[in-house]
Amino acid sequence: VERVKDRHVVIVVFPGFQPLDAVGPFEVFSGANRAAGALGRAGGYRVTLASVDGSPVTSESGLSLGTTTLPGPAERIDTLLLSGGGGTRAARHDVELIDWVRDRSTRARRVATVCTGAFLAAEAGRLDGRRVTTHWAAAAELQADYPSLQVDADPIYIKDGKYWTAPA
Amino acid sequence: VERVKDRHVVIVVFPGFQPLDAVGPFEVFSGANRAAGALGRAGGYRVTLASVDGSPVTSESGLSLGTTTLPGPAERIDTLLLSGGGGTRAARHDVELIDWVRDRSTRARRVATVCTGAFLAAEAGRLDGRRVTTHWAAAAELQADYPSLQVDADPIYIKDGKYWTAPA
User: Cβ of B37 under 8 Å from any chain A Cβ?
Assistant: First the structure.
């Protein structure tokens, strides 16, 4: 039985990620916990910023954020969120990262990609045949690289099954 | 003569800062540089995230961001930006931080506070007699603690001389 009050949100970053893609969602879920606390209720989310190395990761703007290692298979993930940024072009060739995304996407309750984070889920094969969106400037590249996807650059988000994609 | 192409933007954080107060402005100035580069022009800003200790600083949500030490007196600062967050209540008693803010605010071309970052500039005496704003939930406290300020919680920003204050 899942404990509703402890939904684990795992936000994945990699060298060259876009800081707001990760910090924005982190603060939304953390803020929901604080708002619940202000109402006298228990917070619902545990939020983790994770990377392959589990050490500080440098973003595309130079900001460095502390991370923990990618959660192991025994750790239940409620929401798996993949950040984007210029670094996705290199990160999708990181076999350890992509293997982890492939495995954990299957088991997470829901999976979300921000901006070019869609390239990571696509490389892992998890967006095959799905309607997805990404940053407008990367939409043609995503479609060319992963022809089975149905890429639409216009929506502010698309939900296809448990896969949520957003342009920014 | 100031080199217009190398304006140093120093964003100050402290334990318990609000991550978006710092990361948002950091990405705005970094993004301006990237946009200029895409147009074939040199970027205009050098952006630094700084703290008293110069080591990773933990925010109020638990996110940890890498920082450098507060720039010394020989380092020219164009824009000094003070982030906010729950940690400002403790940070304003950090004598080293407040002394630095007092000294460098005088010499920076412009000074900006985000959210409760206004408490730091106020504690340093730099907002005395000025019209300022802060987060609506902290406006009464700011007014009570620093009676010489003219606190207005409504505007999305106030510019009084070289001092810019914003609620979030």
Answer: no
